[in-house]
Design brief:
Oligomer: single chain
Radius of gyration: 19 Å
Helix content: 40-55%
Number of domains: 1
Strand order of the largest sheet: 1-2-4-3
Order of helices and strands: HEEHHEEH
Number of strands: 4
Shape: globular
Largest sheet: 4 strands, mixed
């Protein structure tokens, strides 16, 4: 019985080591018809993200520079925590996905992880979105 318990415990420890630690940062991801918004959950709520995406859809397709300007205005309009938001990145139009990715971060160092959430081709350890 003791031998069997030891084998079970060791197997569990080995499987835990293989799986590795989960990324510490989580991002939420929301989609609209034209835009994909990835944001730090401490920057805005899901309702605020949905409202920003609805306004972006109403505005239609635009280039990345214009979208960055509009997104900043919409974040303020919908009450996102502007003091916490440190970086807003708008990635250009992706013809494969037929969408534009917008990343809203409270910590600029999290950008590679956020890009991994928006781009399936990035071979980084991908944090899971909560949606």
């Amino acid at each position: 019985m003791t031998h069997r318990l030891a084998v079970i415990v060791l197997t569990g420890l080995c499987l835990g080591a293989i799986a590795g630690p989960a990324p510490a940062t989580s991002f939420n991801s929301s989609r609209s018809n034209l835009y994909r918004l990835v944001y730090s959950p401490d920057a805005m709520s899901a309702a605020q993200a949905a409202a920003v995406l609805a306004d972006l859809d109403r505005a239609g397709r635009m280039d990345a520079a214009k979208a960055a300007e509009v997104v900043r205005q919409l974040l303020a309009k919908h009450g996102a925590d502007a003091a916490r938001i440190k970086k807003v990145t708008v990635r250009g139009w992706d013809p494969k996905r037929k969408s534009m990715a917008i990343i809203v971060l409270t910590n600029p160092a999290d950008e590679p992880q956020a890009i991994a959430v928006t781009d399936e081709g990035v071979p980084a350890e991908r944090p899971r979105s909560t949606k």
